[in-house]
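User: My instructor asked us to take a sequence, write out its structure as tokens, and then describe one feature of it. I'm not sure where to start. Here is the sequence I was given:
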Amino acid sequence: SGQGSGGQLRAAQRLDAGRGGALVSAGVELLDSMSNTTAQLAAERWVVMHCLPEHFKGVSFSGRVLQVKWGGKFAFDTVSNDGKIVGLISTSAAHTASGKSAIAKFQKLKADALYLLNVVGAVRLFMVFTEKSMLAHFEKERTSGRFPLEIEFLHVTLPEEIHAQVIEARRVASAETTPTQKINKANKYHD
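Assistant: Let's start with the prediction itself. The structure tokens for your sequence are:
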């Protein structure tokens, strides 16, 4: 949802015009994050094209922007052609590369669930988890009364090749956010 990565890249390129190394480094990081997004989008596309029509008995899905009750709009990962079945797809794991709980991912999914609960016209709501650890986290949340019962949970196992791309994208993203890695990477592009 929001501005596509192509728009972000063009903005980064405009900022970099004649400004030197720091912005070149930012552009390289943006390209890396675009590849991370590419892996996630490939996984989501596979779920939408191969798993959901089977689970929902022949219903076709695609990502769409829909109206929410308070008047705004939200880009949902998967919406049935008639708009009655709406879902979100998570390719995130419940733990970071360092083994800590993925708090930011939990918060993002809960925020997205708020939009899902308030979409106009939907009669069936669901979230797809490609990682068992994230599904287990949200099942525990639901059991503890901290997640709405109205949202159905599904688990989908990605094909090995797609899952490997998602894992690699996570590894790259983790390396990018490790302070020593960021400093070394920035210096690499300054020389």
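For the description part of your assignment, you could build on this observation: The beta strands are 61-67, 73-80, 85-90, 124-129, 151-155. Try explaining in your own words what that tells you about the chain.
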